[in-house]
Amino acid sequence: MQNILGIESSCDETGVAIYSASAGLVKDLVYTQADHAAYGGVVPELASRDHIRKLPAMLHELHELTGIAPHEIDAVAYTAGPGLAGALLVGAATGVAYAAALDVPAIAVHHMEAHLLSPLLEEPAPEFPFVALLVSGGHTMLVAVEDFARYQLLGETLDDAAGEAFDKTARLLDLGYPGGPEVARLAIDGNSEKYEFPRPMTRRPGLDFSFSGLKTHTRELIARVDKSAYADVAAGFEQAVAETLAIKCRRALEHTRMERLVVAGGVSANLRLRAELDKRIPGRVYYPSMRLCTDNGAMIAHAGWYRRAEGSKSGLVRVRPRWPIDELNRQP
Ligand code: KG4
Ligand code: ZN
Hints:
9 helices, Nucleotidyltransferase, domain 5, five-stranded mixed β-sheet
């Protein structure tokens, strides 16, 4: 198996890419849907329709740009979950149909496993074992990664995901969607120590997270301050999230006695988080490159390479909007 085509459509990014077994990532195209900004969050039905509109042209462009013809594709990997059901179905149906037309296997990829493996696309790649912090718009989890397909969930959020907390705070600050980059931009000129913010669940033991209290705290603070204080609020909020995540990462490393930390998912692009991790984590921290932090087809094609043995020619289109990551484990 040489060339794997990857298709991502779980949320509001349409991504296609080709990963080559010998040459690594060949090309990665991402289209970020813009229509959701007006609604302050992803509208599932709009997302599905936009994927339908974009995917065929993007696949065509991918072949054009790479010079890799359809008949040179050896497998098609697509995101089968977790994610928005309708959005997933577009990528899954496209992937399965394309694979059937080319008479190659279709590989159902777990979106969070793809994030988790994405730092392995970089140089130097982390070696197993490592602790992974996965922070996206829908998930916040700490996973002990013994090896490929040997995952143990150490902790997760009890309510909002880290990215979701950024998105909701952005809305409170009259910023656009997606909120993470907007809050980070506003925070650059802010004083993170002007206001006090909680570091939720850091004082008691355990590796779970909770961000809804921080969100409520921020909402109440915003109601009290003038708009000129918004940069300070953004900076204080961002710092609180960064420190909370970093404290838990350090605890997870101590708990597992692992040395390496991998951080992936949209929020891993956050520079304040990266700075806080560099400060608090004694070992090395591995990230995907900036453009591969948020959703993309490259990580799907890459994860498909790892899952190539599970490729199937059945032609069945199945998605798993909910899909616990430890269901991916192979037996030791
Ligand atoms: O992984 P991702 O692209 O999609 C999901 O699988 O959810 O993550 C998107 C999330 C959004 O909540 C977005 O606000 C957040 O990642 N995000 C950031 C940054 N860039 C994206 N959060 C904080 N700082 C950033 N620079
Ligand atoms: Zn994602």
